[in-house]
Amino acid sequence: MADEQEQQEGKPKGASSKPDFATIGGIVVALGGIVGGMILEGGKVSDISQFTAALIVLGGTLGAVMITTPLGTVLGAAKKFGSVFFGKQESPRAVIEEIIGYASQASFLLDCGLGVAAHTVQADYAGLPL
Fold first, then answer.
1. DSSP 8-state secondary structure symbol assigned to residue 114
2. Which helix (H) or strand (E) holds 84?
């Protein structure tokens, strides 16, 4: 029952969430670079910790994104915002099953006549190292 619900919600069977340390590390490195650059230039941390400055930058950025992106895409991105920080850990078995499914589809397509086209392409390049 839970597996069916996960698949209906678009979650692959056997997937679990775990923190995405690369994203978290990237944010830490970015903030460290900003603060470090300010300190090296003789500025103070308080120069960049103003709420109004953050509101102008973040609000302007969000507005620009909303102007250039269709509403459905913006709403979809907002719904999936948590996945930026928590990646899905898929079970190896689920990944293997997915790959086998793709291989079966490819085999079926080759059996349906695309194999003839593939042999024709190879004949055109006969003698060339591929």
1. I
2. helix 82-85
